Amino acid sequence: MDSLEVRLQFIQILKNLSKTLYTITPSYQTQSTNNKYDEPIIFFLKNQSQYYEDLEQCLFDIINKMNPLDRINIVVYYLILMEILVSNSNSNTYTLPNITNQVKEMFLKFSKLYRMILPKDDIVSLSNLPIAKELYDRLQEVTQGLDTDIQNMVHECHTILLERLSIRDDMYKKYEQDGLVTIDTQNSQTTEDVGVQTVLHRMENDRERHKRSKEQQWVEARIDRNVLETSSSNLATTSSNSTSSSTDKNAADETEFDKVWANAGSGVNQVQLVAMSQLSTIATESLEG
């Protein structure tokens, strides 16, 4: 496979990340290469050493053309790759990771990607803040113990996050005070970047991510045989008790009927005959009417 084929395949992978990447916690720990969620990770790792520059250029070209709301998937993907590369570089668990220059270069460029999901003049991109906060927390864990240059990059990401949080809080405060928020359309990119199709695309991504996460909850634990045997025994006991209770009730009803019948006496008196005749007359008239 030459560099052109690698670039074309990587472009398709990046465009389909909304369907194959659904959580910040990666599924790369699964060893099976047949898992479609692992495909973006495996492709990069297989071609990184030979085509790193092509992959990097494709990634930045694609993300530059995207709306900030859609860029979040690529940044999540990028962070997962960095985490894997750091874990692979750490040959001795009792020492700090000895990362390669290539991996270090990836780390130093992360702040650029982080800024792209939270552009300063794009109000709509503030909806990325919850995931951006999770990304920053994850970044701190991944870069723990790395050199000063990488720590400076982490600090830069932290500064970006704090600035955007401050903008959001100011907007909330202004809305609580005045009941509305005024947006400067001359400096804001919102009206240019966000349309109906973008919103629909974001909704589709959220639905897909939610569906994939639900699939992980459909696995049920196998029922223990002892539980089944205990349940069957309890069911049999309950059924036996129910049958016995029903028999006793029927016997009691029959005895009560016999007592009432015995006390009723024999024959029909004159008053009862008159009442029966009247009922018969009323019934006949109602049918004829």
From TrEMBL:
<feature type="compositionally biased region" description="Low complexity">
    <location>
        <begin position="230"/>
        <end position="247"/>
    </location>
</feature>
<dbReference type="GO" id="GO:0070692">
    <property type="term" value="C:CTDK-1 complex"/>
</dbReference>
<feature type="domain" description="CTD kinase subunit gamma Ctk3 C-terminal">
    <location>
        <begin position="197"/>
        <end position="264"/>
    </location>
</feature>
<dbReference type="GO" id="GO:0032786">
    <property type="term" value="P:positive regulation of DNA-templated transcription, elongation"/>
</dbReference>
<dbReference type="InterPro" id="IPR024637">
    <property type="entry name" value="Ctk3_C"/>
</dbReference>
<protein>
    <recommendedName>
        <fullName>CTD kinase subunit gamma Ctk3 C-terminal domain-containing protein</fullName>
    </recommendedName>
</protein>
<dbReference type="Pfam" id="PF12350">
    <property type="entry name" value="CTK3_C"/>
</dbReference>
<dbReference type="InterPro" id="IPR042326">
    <property type="entry name" value="Ctk3"/>
</dbReference>
<feature type="region of interest" description="Disordered">
    <location>
        <begin position="230"/>
        <end position="251"/>
    </location>
</feature>
<dbReference type="GO" id="GO:0045943">
    <property type="term" value="P:positive regulation of transcription by RNA polymerase I"/>
</dbReference>
